[in-house]
Amino acid sequence: MKCTRARFKQCLRFCKSNDDRVRADGLANKLLKRDDISFWKDVSKMNRVNSNVLALTINGVSGECNITKMWHDHYSDLLNSNGDTCLMLIVLLNVLIILLDLFLSLVFQKSETQLQIC
To answer: 116 and 73 in one domain?
Structure first.
């Protein structure tokens, strides 16, 4: 009985500690498969008002604007660290394609919704 209870508690701790990673992996897989509808549906579920804030401070930086600036600086340094501008352009082009894809899917979803209302 003690072994079963201990094993159960160990499994429960494992599930709780890996819950965020599993959710992030699921979102990444949906984004890679270009399953935009499921991706955004899961994102909206995670961003509901009653959801918990995951991190208020990252690497000693707190506040939404400051954290955003920290990530901006981090990725700017990362993309500009390599002298190969061709590689940087390829990365930026891929990001642009993904953003354009997401934007167009949102525009078409919105226009379809408006057509159904009329």
So the answer is: yes
